[in-house]
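Working notes for the structural subgroup meeting. M.R. asked for a predicted model of this chain before we commit to crystallization trials. I am recording the input and output together here so anyone reviewing the notebook later can reproduce the run.

Input as submitted:
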Amino acid sequence: MNKRANGESAARFRIETAYLLELSVGASHVSSTLSPWPRHACIEEVMANFLANMGAHI
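Returned structure, recorded in token form:
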């Protein structure tokens, strides 16, 4: 595989990963409306998970 193909493959992987992340966040929001948890608790959980996975270097 040449460098261009590797670069395109890496770019596709990043795009697919970003899509899956957005999809999972959306699913979390939808599921939070179907459960007894208050909205604030859901937001805190999503933020804590994001910081745990991505770090606080925003």
